[in-house]
User: Which sequence fits this backbone?
């Protein structure tokens, strides 16, 4: 069982929740830019949240399904269609064999995620399915997907053909996810102070909190370059190269900022003035070049509470989706 790429998108790769524990080798964790959307995509189709998904940027690919299967699309809205019929996001959909998934237009967001029931049948590299393009490992042979690639997926445990109505190309299953809280106030990004926050002048700290910053077009999965009023340290300092993470905000020598993203380097020598809170990384990942960011100062306890609430939400969603699928199998 598999699907094939009829036409590749801008950058289609296989990702999971990342390759952790190898930073001492200089290997970035990588993984999905929007880990929330990736996890939800898996849970909707009954997978473990650690399963691999396809991360899709616009313009997206055209995909031919070679078998009846259950899919979910989460994240950005690229107007997904099956044989030119619109299908919903954030909801499981049974698709018929020999139908084509297409993403004809960009409505909002930076990247979406495609999961299939049972997961993709791929080999792990360093305990992860995620594609590391620089190392040429993980995912689908370490590469972005191209025309003619046939991605196998694991055998279905449910007879999906029985859920399809006669002559229908797909069938939407009756449960979906409410994402209002996860992406509420999309341009407001919470942060906690970084190790070098106190090295900023008082005026610079005010500018950081009060001004908007625009995402530069040269931004990518490694980092978002931000354009705004130049910032400065109170006095010049020499820093030892130190560990950085997904969401670290660094101050560059030219006074501009960079927010490190999923494919960030493992260490850096620029001042780490802030860290985007984990619960707001999905919002950050869905912003696009020319979008603006307003940073909001938060304390560690508030950031932790948001993350705990997110994890509880995902746990409830996992149990609920499995119950729904089991009910369908019993029927």
Assistant:
């Amino acid at each position: 069982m598999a699907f094939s790429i009829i036409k590749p998108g801008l950058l289609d790769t296989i990702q999971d929740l990342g390759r952790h524990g190898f930073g001492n080798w200089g290997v970035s964790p990588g993984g999905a830019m929007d880990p929330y959307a990736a996890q939800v995509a898996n849970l909707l189709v009954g997978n473990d949240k650690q399963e691999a998904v396809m991360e899709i940027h616009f313009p997206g690919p055209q995909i031919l399904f070679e078998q009846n299967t259950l899919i979910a699309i989460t994240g950005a809205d690229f107007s997904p269609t099956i044989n030119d019929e619109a299908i919903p996001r954030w909801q499981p959909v049974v698709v018929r064999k020999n139908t084509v998934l297409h993403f004809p237009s960009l409505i909002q967001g930076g990247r979406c995620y495609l999961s299939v029931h049972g997961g993709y049948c791929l080999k792990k590299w360093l305990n992860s399915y995620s594609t590391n393009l620089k190392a040429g490992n993980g995912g689908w042979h370490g590469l972005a997907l191209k025309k003619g690639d046939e991605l196998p997926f694991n055998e279905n445990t449910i007879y999906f053909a029985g859920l399809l109505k006669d002559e229908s190309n797909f069938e939407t299953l009756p449960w979906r996810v409410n994402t209002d809280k996860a992406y509420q106030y999309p341009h407001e990004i919470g942060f906690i102070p970084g190790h070098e926050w106190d090295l900023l002048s008082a005026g610079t700290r005010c500018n950081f909190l009060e001004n908007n910053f625009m995402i530069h077009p040269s931004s990518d999965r490694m980092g978002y370059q931000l354009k705004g009023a130049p910032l400065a340290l109170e006095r010049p300092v020499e820093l030892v190269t130190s560990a950085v993470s997904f969401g670290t905000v660094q101050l560059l020598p030219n006074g501009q900022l960079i927010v490190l993203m999923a494919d960030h380097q493992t260490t850096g020598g620029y001042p780490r003035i802030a860290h985007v809170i984990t619960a707001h990384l999905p919002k950050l990942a869905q912003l696009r070049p020319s979008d603006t960011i307003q940073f909001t100062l938060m304390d560690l306890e508030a950031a932790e509470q948001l993350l705990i609430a997110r994890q509880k939400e995902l746990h409830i969603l996992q149990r609920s989706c499995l119950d729904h699928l089991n009910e369908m199998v019993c029927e």
In short: The first helix runs from residue 35 to 44. The chain has a mean pLDDT of 94. The CA atoms of residues 73 and 114 lie 5 Å apart. The chain has four helices and 21 strands.
